[in-house]
Amino acid sequence: MTEDDYDKLSSEEREARDKADRERERKEQAALPYKWRQELGELDLEVPVPKGTRGKELTVVIQKKKLSVGLKGQEPILEGELCKEIKLDDSTWSLEDQETVHIHLEKLNSQQWWENVLTHHPKIDTRKIQPENSKLSDLDGETRGMVEKMMFDNQQKQMGKPTSDELKKMEALKKFQAAHPEMDFSNAKIS
């Protein structure tokens, strides 16, 4: 169904369609030999292995665009091409409680949701993902500064006060006036 077709549905039809899609996705994802969850910048997989498995019995291959997990001498539990590229140096795996291989993948593009882990596995509808609220402290310095500036400017506008850019202009004008007392700015219109 195309997005235009979906938009033409009534709200009841859309709700029924969404419910059916969610149920189908849930069944498809439950049938996979692993569980996975993602955030914008990273993805985590949990791959069950026989209880008592030791790290040296595993074959785990993490490449920029490929992933393989299995027990030595056996068919891989999962193997294939990753949906998108990863940062190889920041991606890791570990064995937890001798029964679960935990794989952490750092996405190369940290602003993109993945439809699936391996390209040949069922896809999820990334338009329906509802990300958790993030904290300001989770953001990198540049992004955090930009968000704080936007929040400050929005607060200033709501109170009818000048934004940070307007404050900068006013400060520059004051400095210029102080440096040039001979000039008359009484009729100047500053935009």
Report the strand count.
7
Distance linking N and C termini: 50 Å
CATH class of the largest domain: Mainly Beta
> Could you say what the CATH topology of the largest domain is called?
Immunoglobulin-like
Mean pLDDT: 87
Low-confidence parts lasting 5 or more residues at pLDDT below 50? none
- CATH-derived architecture of the largest domain: Sandwich
Q: Could you tell me the strand content as a percent range?
A: 15-25%
GO molecular function, one term: unfolded protein binding
Keywords: Cytoplasm
Domain CS: 29-118
Function: Required for nuclear movement. May interact between microtubules and nuclei and/or may be involved in the generation of force used to move nuclei during interphase.
Keywords:
191 residues, alpha+beta, Immunoglobulin-like, four-stranded antiparallel beta sheet, three-stranded antiparallel beta sheet, 4 helices, elongated, HSP20-like_chaperone, unfolded protein binding, Nuclear movement protein nudC
In short, what is this structure?
With 191 residues, the protein is an alpha+beta fold.
